[in-house]
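Can you give me the bound-state structure? Components:
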Amino acid sequence: EDQVTQSPEALRLQEGESSSLNCSYTVSGLRGLFWYRQDPGKGPEFLFTLYSAGEEKEKERLKATLTKKESFLHITAPKPEDSATYLCAVHYGGATNKLIFGTGTLLAVQP
Amino acid sequence: NAGVMQNPRHLVRRRGQEARLRCSPMKGHSHVYWYRQLPEEGLKFMVYLQKENIIDESGMPKERFSAEFPKEGPSILRIQQVVRGDSAAYFCASSRETVNNEQFFGPGTRLTVL
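Here's the bound-state model for the whole set.
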């Protein structure tokens, strides 16, 4: 069964302390890997899409990378406003466009 | 440039009642997806629709749940005879095309069954 696993489940950082979040997936014809940010009580906010191993994308303090088995979301010098749950999802293609989500990493950045 | 719109944002129903959740996709988007997020769990795919067609309903419970995306108007997720286990956040997403499949989510409807 196709699975998406995110680690750690929760991460507490001091403001300015860089770190990485991990998303690993079973290999079965990956068509795309997506990162979202979700704030409490809100819908997921689209961040990045990665399509092939070696691809990287950046947005402000966030940088997403992709290998054949996992993706990393690097957070450089985080600020308290980066506190949120970060969700990873994969699209395996085929006749459906459904996304398979991990359970997320809850990030708390303390001032 | 309005995003995905969902209403109501909060819905309270008693057991046995019906719940109707509405979703208007982003302008220019013709693909709609419904996901459910149970407390302490991740988002789970329910159904994928295009105008007047259900493309994939593999995540929909076999009974009591139905979805439609008519030619005119919003997509509707309908839950008949709700039970307490239906309490969750229901999110709608839309995409412009299937090639890159970038799905944009609405704010969700939080259903509470008493």
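A couple of observations. Residues 19 and 79 of chain B are 5 Å apart (CA to CA). The first strand of chain B starts at residue 5 and ends at 7.
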